[in-house]
Amino acid sequence: MAAPTSGEGSLLAMIVDSDTATGLLLTGVGQVDIRKRTNFLIVDDKTSQARIEEAFKEFTNREDVAVLLINQVIAGMIRHLLDAYNKPVPAILEIPSKDAPYDPSQDSVLQRVRFMFGES
Amino acid sequence: MSESAFEEALDAAQEYLALQEALGAALRAGFLSLAQARYSMGADRVSALQLPAHMTATARLQTDQGKLGLVRMEPKARLAASSSGTSSRSSAAGAANDSAAASSTESIPDSADAAPAEDKTNAAQAAQPALQAAAQGSGAQQQQSGGEPGDVAALLQRMQLLAQQSDSLVDELAAKYCSGDGDAKASGAAAAPSSSGAGGDLDGEYEEVAHPSRPLHWFGSLVAPSLRDAEGHFCRALELVVQAANAQAALRRGLERQRAAAAAGGEAAAAPGDGAAS
């Protein structure tokens, strides 16, 4: 696992659709190293669920990733992995896509809040 | 304690929701600008097809006192294989040539910018005797091994210096007119040939073309204003992402404290019951 070099900072990983990836890569968060290892996965109609799950596990196990962005529609495809995810780093942030707005009722973090307050 | 943890968790949840709403608004504006850019520039020119095969993240995250912060890094100056090949030839020519090349890049006056060139011109005038001495020294070294090759070596050295000068001028002009931060990047670009002449980094050996410094220029040197607007909207969205990540971390901590407080309260409630039974 690649650890962040001192002074360089951590990366922001993404599992998003093409439009979101194009926009966020404009900000300079994209990283493709010599070994063709990327910090983003562009999901389209041909991307399988297994590939998304593989990318999620890879990004959450990398030491140089601090935040993982994922479109909420794509997060719904691997909801079982997000619900089972308990590590503080990297933080998983569900963001809206061009076609689907943000739905708080589907956010895994807010579901935990609702469950906790309902339990207490 | 459980009430304070409950309040903290509620405040963090409210902040998280507010940031998600602001993030959604910024992303919507960015998507709209991106669509306008696609309409004016063409769908293929503004798509994932334009992404380079190799890129380095200039926007990174750093942790400061438990909170994430966005850090912008200067993109590394990347040169074409031809300039890296030239620099490798200059390094292979010997230590005298390296020192002469290094001093020559400082001594060559910068004709692109008049104001920053004053210091460089003064350095050029001061370094020219050193340059001539180095050239004569390298020529003398060549003459010790063979008489005629001394002139050839001096001529080769002058050609290498001219090649490096042209590379530095091209880089400075490109940095000035293509990126918009002319002064900062011109000074950085002027130092780039000497850094690549010293050996370069691993990335430079594998590059075939020069990479632009800003991701905006992946889509062409002249881009639509709507694409620049999209860049601004997505930069704003990135800042909101970082804030939302911090709010989410605070929410997680509040939930953990609430869970711990609830567990402690449950144990305390069970203990008097056990004592009464005994």
In percent, how much strand structure appears in the residues of chain A? 15-25%
Largest sheet of chain B: 2 strands, antiparallel
E-strand count of chain A: 4
CATH architecture of chain A: 3-Layer(aba) Sandwich
How helix-rich are the residues of chain B, as a percent range?
Answer: over 70%
Q: Radius of gyration of chain B, Cα only, in angstroms?
A: 30 Å
Rounded mean pLDDT score of chain B: 70
Q: Return Rg of chain A in Å.
A: 15 Å
Describe what you observe in this structure.
The complex is a heterodimer of chains A (120) and B (278). Chain A has 120 residues and is α/β, with parallel strands linked by helices. Chain A has a four-stranded parallel beta sheet. The mean pLDDT of chain A is 89. Chain A has helices at residues 18-25, 49-61, 72-77, 79-84, 108-119, and strands at 11-17, 40-43, 65-71, 91-95. In chain B, helix 2 (81-92) packs antiparallel against helix 5 (149-179) and helix 5 runs antiparallel to helix 6 (182-197). Chain B has a domain at 1-51 and 58-72 and 214-266. Chain B is mainly alpha-helical. Helix content of chain B is 72%, strand content 4%. The chains are: A alpha/beta (120), B mainly alpha (278). The interface between A and B is large, with 47 and 62 residues.
